Amino acid sequence: MKLYELSQSYNQLLEMAEELDQETFLDTLESIQEEMDVKIENTAKLIRSLQGDIEAIKVEEKRLADRRKAMENKIESIKSYLQNEMEVAGIDKVKRPTFTVSVVNNPPCVQIEDESIIPSTYLVPVPDKIDKKAILTALKNGEYIEGCTLSQSRSVRIK
User: Fold this and answer.
1) How far apart, in whole angstroms, are the C-alpha atoms of residue 6 and residue 41?
2) CA–CA separation, 93 vs 31, rounded Å?
3) Which domain of life is it from (predicted)?
4) This prediction's pTM
5) In a domain? residue 134
6) Cα-flanking dihedrals φ and ψ of residue 98, to 5°?
């Protein structure tokens, strides 16, 4: 039986408790509970296995991200070297059958020297952010905050 079927059987058995003799009821209840325990344990094992897979994937993602970053840095280093050597030699452009390599001017960009003296016209307002931790603390301390309520959900914990 599937876990949800066992849950249904368990609830049906509880509804029929008065109609069954005590021995039949207890035997059936024990049987369903044992099956449910096994199914729950197996489901917990599946969750643990998937959590292990997730951790392995995270490690691999980090390894690949580090490798990608190293390659990006290598490309920047090689491009800087190439640009420097072309500028030292006075070469602006090299045309070859497979590539054209040029030293070009980038578009202008702004360099901020002191943010504190920038006129407010050029500042972008930052939206307010709700401090949920402070609200939680206040609600736990019995304070009333309009638009907020304290709720508590349930979850499965596997130890």
Assistant:
1) 14
2) 82
3) Bacteria
4) 0.65
5) no
6) -100, -30
Domain coverage including residue 26: 1-89
In tens, the pLDDT along 84-101 reads 999 999 999 999 999 999
Domain count, the chain: 1
Q: Is residue 95 classed as helix, strand or coil in its secondary structure?
A: strand
- Residue 35 lies inside a defined structural domain of this protein: yes
Evaluate if residue 32 carries a pLDDT over 90.
Answer: no
Q: One-letter amino acid identity for 141?
A: N
**Is residue 145 packed enough to be buried (19+ CB in 10 Å), middle (13-18) or exposed (0-12)?**
exposed
The rounded distance, in Å, linking the Cα atoms of 63 and 57 is 10
The helix or strand, by DSSP H or E, that contains position 100, with its residue range, turns out to be: strand 100-102
33 part of a folded domain: yes
Distance CA 20, CA 11 (A): 14
The structure tokens listed for 69 are 């970053």
Reduced to 3 states (helix: H, G, I; strand: E, B; else coil), residue 127 is: coil
Is residue 4 within 8 Å of residue 35, measured between CB atoms? no
Q: H or E element: which one contains 102?
A: strand 100-102
